[in-house]
Design a protein that fits this description.
Layout: H1 5-44, H2 51-77, H3 85-106
Helix pairs in contact: 1-2
Protein name: 2TM domain-containing protein
Domain 2TM: 13-96
Organism: Winogradskyella luteola
Length: 107
């Protein structure tokens, strides 16, 4: 089966998006595991001379990585976590269909 140039470009674009999604989900799983370990570390930490430093290091790691995971999610989903383009297109078609049927009924 021979693909034309436009289809090849679409295939490359789709593979790129799938790869970005895979990397993001892997990043999210790793983040979740490390977050659990850091929170457990904060729970079991005992009194000692380095307690403040360990707490500060754990909290700064959690805060920094949370910011990076949010930026990564934004770059992968382009801010469309809730209302995706397909949803918008579907709603536009529904409104056009409703408008077309209403005008036919009254004309």
């Amino acid at each position: 089966m021979e693909l034309n140039n436009n289809q090849k470009q679409l295939l490359i674009y789709a593979k790129s998006k799938v790869r970005k999604l895979q990397v993001f989900y892997l990043h999210l799983v790793l983040y979740t595991i490390i977050l659990g370990l850091l929170l457990y570390n904060l729970y079991v930490i005992e009194e000692g001379e380095y307690k403040i430093a360990i707490i500060w290091l754990n909290l700064s790691t959690i805060a920094t990585w949370s910011i990076f995971i949010a930026i990564h999610a934004w770059s992968v989903f382009k801010g469309r976590l809730l209302f995706k383009k397909s949803w918008e297109d579907r709603k536009i078609k529904e409104f056009i269909k409703v408008e077309a049927t209403e005008k036919k009924l009254w004309e």
